Amino acid sequence: MPDSLNLDELRQQIDDTDQALLSLLKQRLALVHAVGEYKSEHGLPVYVPEREAEMLAKRRSEAEKMGIPPDLIEDVLRRAMRESYSSENDAGFKTIKPTAGDIVVVGGRGKLGALFVKMFRLSGYKVLVLGRDDWHRAEELVGNASLVVVSVPIDRTVETIERLPKLPADCTLADLTSVKQPAMKAMLASHNGPVVGLHPMFGPDIASFAKQVIIFCEGRSSEQYSWVLEQMKLWGSNLVESNGQEHDETMSLVQALRHFTSFAYGMHLQSENADLKRLLAFSSPIYRLELAMVGRLFAQDPELYVEIITAAPENVKMFKRYLSNFGEALELLEQGDSDAFVKRFREVSDWFGHFATQFQAESRDLLLAAHDRVTHDD
C-alpha cells in the first residue's frame, strides 16, 4: 500500500471494502433463500447442526491460513446464519402430515399462540383460532381437528382444557404452558386420544425456531402425535424429552428462581435509588450484561412473570432454600472467615466440574458481544 495515502483515502478504502461486504452479504442471503425453498420442497430441517459445525470449522481453518483471526470469521458467520435462519422461514416448510385435518390453537390471538398459528400455516396446514369470544362455536371449530393446542395463561390452562368440547378420537391435544403436571393431568382426563405436553423455552418475539428448545412430555399414544414433533424439528427446534415432575422441578430453577432473583435485585436497586446511568458508566462488560438481564425483566408484562414465579407451590420453598444459602454465605462474610469462604467456593467449583470452564468460554463470547454494542455518547 502506498505510503502517500492519507487518512481520508484510507478511510475511503475501508468504506469501499464495507460496500463490497454488503454486496457479498446480499448475495449470501439470496442463496440462503434458495436453500430455504429447496429445504421446504424436500422436507429438510432449517437447522442442521452437523452442517453448521463442519462449515464453521472449515472457515476457521481457512481464516487462520489467511492471517485472519478465526474468532472473527466465526462471529461474522454466526450472525449471518442467524439472519439466514429467519430468512428461510419465508419459504415455508414441508407439510409432515398432508392428510391432517384442522389445527386449532386455543388462545391463538395471544402473542405465543399467534406465533404457532403462523408456523403451522407456513407448514401448509389449515389453522383455526379458538379465542375467548369463540366458545359458542367451540364444538364446530374442533370438529375436524387433528391437533388442538392450548396456549393461554398458566392460571387458566386447566380450566380451559376442562372446558373443551369432545375432540375427535385421533386428535392430538397439546398445551404450551410452563407448568406441566396440572396441565398433563387435565388433558389426560379430558381426552382419550393422543396427548403431549409442550413447553417452548422462548418468547413470542423470536425471528426463527432454529436452535430454540421445546420441551415435550409424553402423555398418551406417542406414535399418533409424532408428526407434530417432526414438524417442529423441520422448523429447526431442538426437542428435549422430559416428564411432568422433572420438568416442573427443573423449571423452578431455570425460570422461577431466575426471574424471582432478578425481580428482587431490581427492587433493591430501586430502594437504593441507584443511578442507572452512573452504574452503566462504571460497568464492566459482565456487570452491564447482568444489569441488562435484570432490566429486561422490567420491560415486559408483570402479570406473565408473576404467573411463572407463583405457578408451582414448590417455587416458594425453593426461594426459601435459596435465601438460606444466601444467609449462610453472608454469615461467612460477617465472621470474616476467609478460609471458610474459599473452602466453600472450591466445593461449589468442584460440583460444577467441567461445566465451569465451559460456561467461562461461553460467557466470554457473550461479554465480547455485549461490549461491542457499548457506546459512550451519553
Give a written overview of the molecule.
Pfam families: CM_2, PDH_C, PDH_N. One of its GO terms (molecular function) is chorismate mutase activity. Its main location: cytoplasm. With 378 residues, this protein is α/β, with parallel strands linked by helices. The protein has helices spanning 7-42, 49-65, 70-88, 111-122, 138-142, 154-163, 180-190, 222-234, 244-271, 276-281, 285-297, 302-310, 313-334, 338-352, 354-372; strands spanning 102-106, 127-130, 145-150, 172-175, 195-200, 213-220, 238-242. A seven-stranded mixed sheet has the order 2-1-3-4-5-6-7, with helices on both faces. Helix 8 (222-234) links the parallel strand 6 and strand 7. Helix 9 (244-271) packs across helix 12. 24% of the residues are buried.
**Total of DSSP H or I helical runs spanning 4+ residues:** 15
Order of helices and strands: HHHEHEHEHEHEEHEHHHHHHH
Give the distance, in angstroms, between the N- and C-terminal Cα atoms.
38 Å
Helix coverage percent of residues?
55-70%
Q: Per DSSP, what share of the residues sits in E-state strands of 2 or more residues?
A: 5-15%
Largest β sheet strand count, sense and barrel closure: 7 strands, mixed
Radius of gyration: 25 Å
How many β-strand stretches?
7
Strand order in space, largest sheet: 2-1-3-4-5-6-7
Mean pLDDT score = 91
Class by alpha and beta content? alpha/beta
Gross geometry:
globular
Low-confidence stretches: none
